[in-house]
Hints:
Elements: E1 3-13, E2 30-32, E3 38-44, E4 55-59, H1 76-86, E5 90-98, E6 104-113, E7 124-130, E8 138-139, E9 142-143, H2 151-159, E10 163-166, E11 182-185, E12 190-194, E13 198-201, E14 206-210, E15 217-220, E16 233-234, E17 242-246, H3 247-259, H4 284-287, H5 308-321, H6 328-340, E18 343-347, H7 354-364, E19 369-374, E20 387-390, E21 395-398, H8 403-411, E22 420-425, H9 432-435, H10 437-442, E23 451-453, E24 472-474, E25 479-484, H11 496-499, E26 503-506, H12 533-537, H13 550-567, H14 575-586, H15 599-611, E27 617-618, H16 619-622, H17 635-641, H18 650-666, E28 668-669
Parallel strand pairs: 7-11, 18-25, 18-26, 19-22, 22-25
Antiparallel strand pairs: 1-3, 1-5, 2-3, 3-4, 5-6, 7-17, 8-9, 10-14, 11-12, 12-15, 13-14, 16-17, 20-21, 23-24, 27-28
Helix pairs in contact: 5-7, 6-14, 13-17, 14-15, 15-18
Amino acid sequence: MATYYNIEMIGRVAQDSEIPQGEYGGRRAIFINKSKDIQYNIKTLSSRNGVSEETFIGYISSIRNLEFVDDEYGTDEDRIQAFSDFYMQRLFVFTYKVDAMGYKKVETADIVRRPQKVDKDSRFVAIPCFSGKSDCDSVYDFPLFKSYDSFQEFWQAIIDGKSVGRIFNFDINTSTSFPEFIVWHDNQKMCAIGPIQAATKSGMGSLILQVNAEELREIVLDDDDADDTSEYIVQSESNPTILHIAESKYLSLINKLSQSQIALVEPIGPQVVEEITPFEGVSKTDDTVSVTELPADDSRELPTEKTEESIFEFFRYHSQMNKLFYNPQDITNFHTAIKTGSLVILSGMSGTGKSALVDAYAKALGIKNVLIIPVRPSWNDDSDLLGYVDLIHMVYRPSDTGFINKIVEASREQNKDKLYLICLDEMNLARVEHYFSQFLSILEKPVGSRELVLYDEQYAGQLYNSSKYPQSILIGDNVKFIGTVNIDESTYHFSDKVLDRANVITLDVLDYSKPDSWKIIKYMKANTPEWTNEDFSKLIRKDDVQLEHQVRIRELLWQMHKLLHGINANLGVGPRIVKSIESYLRNLPELQTDYALSIGEGLDYQISQRILTKIRGPEEQLKGIFLSDTQRINALATLLDSFSDISNFERSRKIIEQKENELNTYGYCL
């Protein structure tokens, strides 16, 4: 289990010579890791904080205000050099953690510009910073413990020995002394207040400063000072309660405080001071320097906003960079099925890019939590996927697929807004109804009721690792389940139980004889926005949204139900499928690109995926709906003809024709 250290530090990108031999990553400070991501090391520049570590491992995903654009399809050396060049004049303000293996890793980092008066090896001291209510009422989603109406009120709180406010990511310990001064900063002035003799924390985490009221002084920073103090200070926009000041300037200010002759025993009156421009590092525009690249004449700029259209643009970008080309409407169909369904199954001939589609879709949404599980033919119950209880040693043994670990991770409170993709690759190598049986029932339940039971409640609390693997896990809507299948002699066909709950999507093979079918669109390099579950949920329309042609669509589905149910009591179009089809059609993206799907085209996809997949059996059973030697009328095709006002059903007609050919050739429909 990782140990988190909420101490804000400052550092820069390390050099190769500063990485000790044997440290994680070898002797390279920046390198491409096994996940093909840039990994770097930070050399700390913080002093006087009791932290002995000198280098920390960092990932791009830890940087909150990321401006660097990583060309993940470039060569390793080019990517490393670009990263090094971009961050050469920048500093990292970060917190860290120590993982279960003992590696010191950056938890979160904000990038700030390195002040001009500071060289790359200058050390910094963290100083508590206080300000008025109008300047910092909140830090992200947690309020400051105390803020002030005026500087006079703050000064009096120090004199009276009251708690002055909470400082975030600042540690008070016995291994280091508290800074000799603190800083007040508002839109009127910035000043150092000291000397501070010592400090403690109240039960609520608020600072209580120990001072000698007769010796307490204020120095207005930059007042009659030719040397601009702001050029020695950096501060993360994420945390206005701490600023970092270069150690040389810190010592200079301590000396000024000791030489000051004006003691401020009484609360000082308001001073008229010319408004000070916020010091370097506070403004986001100062913290980061964007790099503008001149695109090639025919390069397309990728969107920066999180919109449904941007998902398809980023999908095209990532897929074509891997030399993968898909029918755009297949991708819209897949995306809409993910939005509205609990399980999506990708089918098609081998080599059509089913597994690669899942990877490209995850990249298009910036999803980092992707698990692809190769299904094994030997699986015959859910213990092969989930795990089992070892009653001899009284522990829960998760399967080696990593499935249950990912489900547990996704269910944690801090991860509920992160998206997860779990893909069962070649899922029909074993019988899905056996190893995935519990999930087939769970996924049909509404969100909030999808509870996965790992073991009987009598063992809850008795297993040694029951805290890590609880008796039941609530599966949220942040986990999306996908399967890929091949249909051949080595695989099993799906039962109606599976087909009732899944969109089975058959991918088209593009006509690669046409010169434009594999056309590459050039894009400018850009970072893919990372979608959260909340972002993704905003794309989903509720069931009360009016659906175009709803009456006619229900008439069609009812007529299909009567036709199918008439030949086999187990066939038909039940209410579950009707609701799923309508939800799918309501959630078709509104696009003006080649990814657009109309209501009619979407209905065609749904009939082929949700209804026609269930039609199979011998000629004797199906002759009532398909063409045979004695009956020259195809009832299904005739039914679709009567609803040509809402769709041409091009895809469905091809499937019906294929099933006719199977009956005529084999006497059986697969």
